[in-house]
Amino acid sequence: MNSIFLGFQKMGVPSVMVLPLLIVVFAGVYYVYNEVMRFMSKSMVRNKVVVITDAVSGMGSECARLFHEGGARLVLCGPSWDKLESLYDSLCSGSDPSKTFTPKLVLLDFSDMENISDVITEIGECYGCVDVLICNSSMKVKAPVQNLSLEMDKTVMDVNYFGPITLAKGVLPLMITRRMGQFVLVNSIQGKLALPFRTCYAASKHAVQAFFDCLRAEVEEYGISVSTISHTFINAVAENGAPSQTPSTNRLWACE
């Protein structure tokens, strides 16, 4: 617990704000746990068409594994075809083909929005419908505001905001027609709280949070639900799968 307090203090958070932040964090963890337990029920995901963006990331690949084991029909999206194929191989090699579906792969890079309409069409043609869209893509930037170019700001907004909302708008008609579906936004606590040196990142996360909050109210009448997950700092593994070497006392600040 002391390390958590120290972590917030290093981030420049006033002491008076630490307790409310901790309450928010633990409430969020409890909510996410319940959502995952409910959502991972095999009876709920079997045969469902689940689209995951940035499926090759740590969180994306773990979601892919869980849904694949649950019998979902996966559409895995990512910016690297080699990594998508590697994920495909790992999923197929460790599963029972009589109980799982072969994942479909779609190349998707939100930093290049020129072909997004073609990608949306390709996703829709995989199974003809989308039951669950998990928007997991994210670009993280930490730097003083004077060191960030406008081009970097635009790229972060493309990946964290314009990409997810464009994809959501693209698959929404498929859900409205069937009067069912779910959007899941994997966002960040910085979509609710702003921290120093995260100007463009926090701005993009605030923007996408607001979009999906508004969307929730608009699509409820069609039987479509919208879930947003605002996680805190993540102690991610390295690209080679090795555990992070960041000292435990610094993890809250150094890793996300």
Automatic annotation (TrEMBL):
Keyword RNA-binding included in the entry's annotation: no
Transmembrane segments: 12-33
Keyword annotations: Membrane, NAD, NADP, Oxidoreductase, Signal, Transmembrane, Transmembrane helix
Pfam families: adh_short (PF00106)
Protein name: Dehydrogenase/reductase (SDR family) member 7C
Gene: dhrs7cb
PANTHER family: DEHYDROGENASE_REDUCTASE SDR FAMILY MEMBER 7C-A, PTHR44668
GO MF, one annotated term: oxidoreductase activity, acting on the CH-OH group of donors, NAD or NADP as acceptor
Family: Belongs to the short-chain dehydrogenases/reductases (SDR) family.
GO BP field: intracellular calcium ion homeostasis
